[in-house]
Amino acid sequence: MSSSLLHTELCGVSMASPIVLLSGCVGFGEEYTRVVGFSNEDVGAVVLKGTTGDMRLGNPPHRVYETPEGMLNAIGLQNPGVDKVVDDILPGLDFSETRFFANVSGSTIEEYEHVTKRFDDSDIDAIEINISCPNVKEGGVQFGNDPEMSARVVAACRAHTSKPIITKLSPNQTDIEENARLCIEAGTDGFAVINTVMGMAVDSETRRPIIGNVRGGLSGPAIKPIALLKVHQVFEVAKHHDVPIIGQGGITTAKDAIEFIVAGATAIGIGTALFYDPLVCKKINTGIVDYLQRHEMASVSELVGTLQT
Ligand SMILES: Cc1cc2nc3c(=O)[nH]c(=O)nc-3n(C[C@H](O)[C@H](O)[C@H](O)COP(=O)(O)O)c2cc1C
Asked: What are the percentages of helix, strand and coil residues in the chain, rounded to 5?
């Protein structure tokens, strides 16, 4: 659906809708856009699968497991490596209707720098830095759970790109507000809040962990209340610096999306919901427009951070 009410500006990127399809849930955009009934008009931006310097085969099976109201995953950042993504995959994407954001990961600061530099020299619209992946042994959440290390990664990437940087924060940390503060000082333009929450599943018969990696990241409606609180906390810091947030974690309906926007999200991310309803974005956009009209608001930006406390 197309409506001027939905138009959203995020870190200087102009989007037709506040909806962002989340990293790891739509591959590199190519398969998802072939779903019958899908329209790029329904999507403000697509975040590509997490990308590293060299290709990664990911973790041993099982990599996903359904939980009550959620899903555990430990894919382990399987991807073909940044050269293949930039040289072979990006040229095949249609940038005319929606925006594409890269999702950068690494085991070292040097790897984050290298991947960022490669994407800087491409058509990508923004660079999301994933310092919150709980499913790899080195890097990822090791950086993201330590505010000073997070800021070092952001500063290093900042030095290698003039494109907007969106830092993806971990919910698996003690002080997300301090982390946000340091990342802003280090030069982030935006935040993605939150990545998955660490969890595990056990097979009681075999007494073995179900996920090959033992631990995994929990996503879906089960994490929504955690995600809402983290968006609210980060917004309390970020609003003083005009740094926008892509709120995410368990959004499946327009009502969920509106709750995140009220809590401080400028855009909202849809991930796990796409696995069981690939066309959910259309319904969410329609519901947001209906809400804005009922409340006599002229744009979705009027609703951002309007929580009454
Ligand atoms: C199968 C799967 C793979 C994911 N891969 C990535 C990834 O590569 N990089 C990343 O930053 N987040 C990744 N995520 C996290 C999502 O982008 C999102 O932040 C999280 O799932 C919360 O949103 P949701 O509850 O709507 O799924 C992945 C999530 C799932 C379910």
From this structure: 35, 20, 45
Residue 141 covered by a domain: yes
Distance from the first to the final alpha carbon of the chain:
33
Residue 183 located in a structural domain: yes
pTM to 2 decimal places: 0.97
Q: What is the pLDDT of residue 53?
A: 97
Q: The domain that contains 100 carries what CATH number?
A: 3.20.20.70
Domain count, the chain: 1
Q: Please give the C-alpha separations between residue 246 and each of 9, 53, 207, 229, 270, in angstroms, as whole numbers.
A: 11, 25, 39, 14, 10
Nearest CA to ligand 1 atom 30: 24
244-271 pLDDT, tens digit per residue, is 999 999 999 999 999 999 999 999 999 9
- By the 10 Å C-beta count (0-12 exposed, 13-18 middle, 19+ buried), 296 is classed as exposed
Note whether residue 92 is domain-resident.
Answer: yes
The predicted pLDDT at position 36 comes to 81
- 133 belongs to the catalytic site: yes
Confidence of residue 140 (pLDDT cuts 50, 70, 90): confident
Residue 125 lies in a domain: yes
Among 146, 149, 165, 145, CA closest to 157:
165
Residue nearest to ligand 1 atom 5, measured at CA = 24
Q: Is residue 225 scored above 90 in pLDDT?
A: yes
- In this model, does residue 285 exceed pLDDT 80? yes
Residues near 299 by Cβ (< 8 Å), separated by ≥ 6? 4, 5, 7, 292
Domain that holds residue 240: 4-54+76-200+218-303
Residue 49 alpha carbon, nearest atom of ligand 1: 8
Q: Which residues line ligand 1 (CB under 6 A)?
A: 22-25, 49-50, 71, 73, 75, 77, 103, 130, 133, 168, 195-196, 219-220, 223, 248-251, 269-273
Task: Please give the number of the atom of ligand 1 that sits closest to the Cα of 71.
Answer: 31
Residue 174: the pLDDT is: 93
